[in-house]
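To fix ideas, we reproduce below a protein record of this kind.
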Amino acid sequence: MNLTDQDKSILRELQQDASLSLGELSARCAMAQSTLWRRLQELEKTGVITGRVALLSPSKVEAKLCVLASVSLHEHTEAAINAFASLVSQHPEILECHKVSGGADYSLKIRCRDVDAYEEFMSHALLRQPFIRSVTSSFVLKEIKSTTALPLQ
């Protein structure tokens, strides 16, 4: 789908604040509410907009510790990959999972209350799995930038 300048304007505003009313959004995008509503419907129908969420402060919901974990599997059979994908989907601590190139097979972004909670998660959820060969963890010391907004050129 080719995005128009109006579409990009709508998407930029929604990425900043998805709670805007139709009236507020139409004013910010300088378009009629009826036009805006039709564009929103089209953006949702075509899958450009996949959902609208509330972003939470990790420190206020006991998820202050952020860990970036590199995971390597013992083997790359379909069964092992499916088991790993199932494990990832079952644990809300795992916010992101990416299959990557390089030394590891996957990169995970994990949020926990503290180091003790992460150790418990590692010991019981990850390292006991027969398909996981190794996990290398890096603890985030300071978050410089965190955004969910995608760049719209």
Summary: The longest strand covers residues 65-73. The mean pLDDT is 96. DSSP finds five helices and four strands in the chain.
